Batch of 2 targets.
Target 1
Amino acid sequence: MPRKAATQSLADADAAQGGVAAVDRALSLMSVFGPGDAALSLGDLAERTRLYKSTVLRLLASLEHARWIQRLEDGRYALGPEVARLHGIYAASFSLEHVVVPALQELVAATGESAAYHVRQGNARLCLYRVDSPHPVRDHIRSGDLLPLDRGSGGRVLTAYDPVLGRAPGPDQHLYARIRADGYFAAIGDRLAEVAGISAPVFLAGGGIAAAVTLTAPAHRYDVRHLDTVLGTARRLTGKVG
């Protein structure tokens, strides 16, 4: 009988429901490559995936054959040319709008308030996408508008997670530290006295800040219960944008 692993493998701990275990394990070998990992040894792959080396070798044979993995002269393993080929197809077909706008539409449907996607542009923030609330009384920001980076919940989040601005000495240093600790910023009247906002960060796959998802409403309709919905939207977009 085969040995039973003392520790559950990475793939088995997060197996696809109704999927194929061997495929999950093969994909887990590729998923453990991270920034700076030009190549990994057999031992590295076994340790990170929590698979036996014998199992890793069998999976690598299939991945090498399909050119997902390549074995280097020093015996280590690197991602193969098939990854680059598919990345080119993905990059050419990727549409940020098709990823972000449906998420904002869902956020508006769930809360009844306006949702926006802000990115930093120089010393300001750009409202890249916006979906309006169905209520006639709302703030009237449009896609393409430039807004302050140092006021408003979206600007505060973008600043807090900026590796330079968010840690620069200044009167708002403690505020930005708290935003990073909390993982969001909610306020009434930070940019306009009658407007409330809740913003959460959206991260790149590599971990850097990509954007801020913001829900805005008139101050009298502000509802702190919408925070979880905003955070959920930001989490769903994280790693899917660039």
Target 2
Amino acid sequence: MSRIITVGAAQLGPIARDESRTRVVERMLVLLRQAAGHGCDLVVFPELALTTFFPRWYMTDQAEVDSFFEREMPGPETRPLFEAAREYGVGFCLGYAELTEEDGRTRRFNTSILVDKKGTIVGKYRKIHLPGHAEYEPWRRFQHLEKRYFETGNLGFPVFRAFGGIFGMAICNDRRWSETYRVMGLQDVEMILIGYNTPVHNPPAPEHDDLSLFHNQLVMQAGAYQNGTWVVGVAKAGLEEGVEQIGNSIIVAPSGEIVARCTTLGDELAVARCDLDLGKSYKNSVFNFARHRQPQAYGLIVERRGAVPPPEE
């Protein structure tokens, strides 16, 4: 038995700081139309897809910061995406900066939503693993102030029944943490959608720069294989406001194999026909959690580690 979903990884090239949302959405609509022409059911856009990656600047004016956030979804500039989804019968996953009123206060999150073929939001995720720092660090060539501008996501790692399967979302740095995949894997996730903005240069650890593409693939391939799930990772790529960002957008099968990829650093669509049933052989054999996983033993390991006395001086 097969459950085929055709997925488009809709990579975006650089977005200038002064580029309007209207212009960015026009670029996204081009990719959405291309995806419809290829018979796609779902298109995945990057993290913070509507603007430049603004956490690379230190800003003290809250109004300036908030100009990069969406107060409603869809809003006036983004509504054409939802209308196109209905017209073409193609759903999408979109990353953006979310400003909302919750618990009697204004809150700001790095967010992704899943939209079905009718243009209806069927799922929301807020980024949990925020990288970077919260205060200005003058030694850096560019800043990475996600801890300043966003709160830690408060929705956990939910999964959603859509497109005939079980879908989850993650954002950028989340992809580096095994817990991201495992929490959704324990909910029988069949496809995880990940958008990212990742600079080639890592200021705290420049010795990692030459490994940026390898590490990007490594974590998504491992997460896919160890949880028997498809993973779709989509970049904002290229030289954006003087910062070189990796592309390397890929679609990974439950086997851990890369089945499609983008090859440029610009706006590009990579397409794959994905059988959601391919994950079953991994979920039912090597990674049959009910039969082989031993969470009751993990606490003993932690306890023993904590009990090891420090080395003598």
